[in-house]
Design goal:
Layout (H helix, E strand, L loop, with lengths): L11 H6 L4 H8 L5 E5 L5 H14 L8 E5 L2 H13 L6 E4 H16 L6 E2 L4 H10 L6 H16 L4 H7 L11 H18 L1 E2 L1 H14 L1 H10 L2 E4 L7 H11 L5 E5 L14 H4 L1 H4 L4 E5 L1 E2 L4 H11 L11 H4 L5 E2 L8 E5 L2 H17 L7 E5 L5 H10 L4 E3 L9 H13 L11 H9 L13 H24 L5 H14 L8 E5 L8 E6 L15 H15 L2 E10 L24 H6 L26 H6 L11 H18 L3 H4 L2 H10 L4 H5 L6 H20 L1
Parallel strand pairs: 1-7, 1-8, 2-3, 2-6, 4-5, 6-7, 9-10, 11-16, 12-14, 12-15, 13-14, 15-16
Helix pairs in contact: 2-3, 4-22, 5-10, 6-9, 8-9, 10-12, 15-23, 17-18, 19-22, 20-21, 26-28, 26-30
């Protein structure tokens, strides 16, 4: 990455565009008109657009004060600003939609509305609880959280309490309430805010949109101020954000958008890829550039990601199917290890197995900060916290206490700020050593403490500050001073752009978006968790698939995918691996078929509802599995059934599980009576799922063949 605009005789084009690949270079050198960048995971999209902005600024096409770069998280905006500073374009504004709108609202409120801007509400919970009490509705923490999410969805979808009901018929029962009750809570919440003279984050966007629509002078001022726009993660834009963007543009087309429909994972918040997928229809003369060279992951990881999305449309119905098709990544890194697939007996065993594998990675030299355990729901983290703690492995829970809120970090920043008055700018010591000397009084040492717990966590926080100082000197040059470092920390604190902390990261798949690690463990990949149980529509299941895709593409080199067959030790082994792993797991039936090792099983036929012998209706699950009522005699040969029972007994004893965990009596009877001669025929029987077919299929066929020979 270019870290500064060097002096010398090299042309501006060589200095800024020289290190880019052909597609990135096309993005960075296309400075005018509408531009759509379809950028796959790990393809260097941020690099491409920051170099585009820098090239436009240094070539005089852009005035840095008249370009606005917009993204979706404060962390991403801070990262973009940091890169732009490194490229000599530090005056360009890079903000979130909310931050940009709030800045405008604060400036224009007095003239457009008058008076003082209401206070901004940080959290909705208290106001929603009050709104529910006014309606005499009983709520708890979970229902309040769900109601808050629903109200946020409604507002970014530009719905009001009056028209919410007619537009939310497919939203289920948020917080356990029917939609009529939700609409009443929505209205009551708005009333509470008015009474308290506060606005929420969605109001910031809504009011800004209202002012720009109603006040031509304000709209003209904003459009004069900003002439060029760049929007990152455009697949996550909501209808409200899209409307605000359109009002900023005012009919102009100086817009560059960047996104990947295959990474749309926030539909539940109102995000929609339709604006990205419809960009060409909106701007017929737009240039479209696809970034597909993956510089992040090994070919093995990239292949798995591609296979997961193979044949899937990533963005929903659009006129041009080719436009909506998932990007097929092309790996640029050297080969690495194959992804590992692991089945465990229960959640506790899965967590212990993951901890063992992490210990092996640490022993091989992989830093703890380059390892992540990703799960579908936050409730899954506890088992991994316990397993890592038992193994003496430090970890950080993403979404826990924020880095800049930690006491040792706040104390360190205070001491660093105080030291700027005492440390001469011309001090011969490098910045890294100055920082080390200052934070030593707070417990920092060059070597990590051997103990764990609070002492280790404190050291890791201080070590992260030291490492950041070293990193910034490398990127900004030796002139980067202690005062500059303190200012950088202040900005990062406001944006919650934390430095890297030494410790294994535990995070949900949603929280992992935009991050990457050398080693990633995707855990709990069983039906009901991936896809989640409430994903009950094709669209919801497709989003779960995209969520797993995001998880896979976080890994640079090591990737492990695991699941358990039971929730608790000794529990019933009734869990099945995620359907998304079908055909991806080595030696699975679908994968074997793809490799020419045999046909894939057909979809199971419907279970018969009447006895195949006497024709009477079947009343129990066991009867339906066998296809015969209990009054009719069995049709299997005794020696075959006996051989199958003995085989099942031996397998169960070897695995230390009850016999029914291998196959129930009803399934064993169905096998003995049907006498399948291939995996395809065996897969058609009720009670023989993909997991059991993979684990026991060949052995069952061998037992049947041997009994035939007797």
């Amino acid at each position: 990455m270019i870290t500064e605009i060097p002096d010398g005789n090299a042309s501006l084009e060589d200095r800024i565009l020289g290190g880019l690949d052909a597609e990135q270079r096309e993005v960075a050198s296309t400075l005018t008109g509408p531009l759509c960048v379809l950028a796959g995971a790990g393809t260097g999209k941020t690099r491409a657009i920051t170099h585009r902005i820098a090239y436009g600024v240094h070539s005089g096409v852009y005035s840095p004060q008249r370009l606005l770069a917009v993204t979706f998280t404060a962390r991403a905006a801070a990262e973009m600003r940091s890169r732009l500073r490194d490229l000599g374009a530090g005056n360009v504004q890079a903000r979130t939609f909310h931050a940009a709108a709030l800045r405008q609202l604060q400036f224009f409120w007095p003239q457009a509305v008058g008076g003082t801007l209401p206070n901004l509400l940080d959290h909705k919970a208290q106001m929603i609880a009050e709104a529910a009490r006014r309606l005499r509705l009983s709520t708890d923490r979970a229902s309040i959280r769900d109601l808050a999410s629903e109200i946020e969805w409604a507002k970014v979808s530009m719905l009001t309490p009056a028209n919410y009901l007619e537009n939310a018929q497919d939203r289920g029962n948020p917080g356990g309430f029917d939609l009529t009750a939700v609409a009443r809570v929505f209205q009551s919440y708005e009333d509470v805010k008015t009474d308290r003279n506060v606005i929420d984050f969605e109001d910031v966007l809504l009011i800004t949109v209202g002012i720009l629509q109603e006040d031509p002078k304000v709209a003209a001022t904003v459009r004069e101020q900003y002439r060029h726009f760049v929007v990152d993660e455009y697949q996550d834009v909501s209808p409200l954000q899209q409307r605000l963007l359109e009002l900023w543009l005012g009919g102009r087309d100086e817009l560059c958008v960047v996104g990947d429909a295959s990474q749309t994972i926030y539909s539940f918040t109102g995000a929609s890829p339709k604006h990205l997928l419809g960009f060409k229809a909106m701007y017929p003369n737009a240039n479209v550039v696809k970034l597909i060279r993956d510089y992040r992951s090994t070919p093995q990881v990239v292949q798995l990601a591609n296979d997961l999305l193979a044949g899937r449309r990533s963005g929903g119905p659009v006129a041009d199917a080719a436009w909506a098709a998932p990007l097929k990544l092309v790996a640029q890194r050297a080969a690495g290890p194959l992804p590992q697939f692991t089945e465990c007996s229960d959640d506790e065993a899965e967590a212990a197995t993951v901890a063992q594998k992490i210990r092996a990675l640490l022993d091989s030299g992989v830093p703890a900060s380059e390892i992540a355990v990703l799960f579908r729901t936050n409730g899954q983290s506890e088992a991994y916290e316990q397993a890592l703690a038992s193994a003496g492995i430090g970890y950080q829970l993403r979404g826990g206490e924020r880095f800049f809120a930690r006491k040792e970090v706040r104390d360190a920043i205070l001491q660093l700020r105080a030291a700027t008055r005492a440390v001469a700018e011309s001090s011969p010591q490098p910045l890294g050593q100055i920082v080390r000397d200052i934070v030593a009084s707070l417990g920092y040492t060059d070597s990590a403490p051997h103990s764990g717990g609070a002492l280790r966590e404190r050291w890791e926080s201080l070590a992260a500050l030291v490492a950041l100082a070293d990193e910034l000197v490398l990127s900004r040059g030796t002139a980067f001073s202690l005062a500059d470092f303190v200012n950088e920390l202040q900005e990062r604190s406001l944006a919650q752009h934390a430095p890297t902390v030494q410790g294994v990261t535990l995070a949900s798949l949603h929280a992992a978006k935009g991050l990457e690690w050398d080693a990633v463990f995707l855990v709990g990949l069983c039906e009901g968790l991936m896809p989640i149980s409430f994903a009950d529509t094709p669209e919801a299941v497709d989003e779960e698939r995209r969520l797993l895709y995001v998880g896979i593409t976080r890994a640079r080199e090591h990737l492990s995918l695991s699941w358990s067959t039971a929730r608790t030790p000794g529990g019933r082994a009734n869990r099945k691996p995620s359907r998304f792993l079908d055909g991806l797991r080595p030696d699975s039936v679908a994968t074997s078929a793809a490799r020419g090792k045999g046909p894939a099983p057909r979809r199971k036929a419907a279970v018969p509802a009447s006895c195949r012998v006497c024709g009477s209706m079947l009343s129990t699950g066991a009867e339906r599995k066998v296809g015969r009522c209990s009054q009719c005699p069995p049709t299997y040969e005794e020696q075959t059934f006996t051989a199958l029972r003995e085989w099942r007994r031996d397998v169960a004893q070897s695995a230390d599980v009850p016999a029914f965990v291998v196959f129930t009596d009803a399934t064993l009877t169905a096998i003995a009576e049907a006498r399948p001669s291939s995996l395809e025929e065996l897969a058609r029987l009720a009670g023989v799922g993909p997991s059991k077919l993979e684990r026991y299929g060949e052995a069952v066929l061998t037992v049947l063949a041997e009994s035939d020979a007797l």
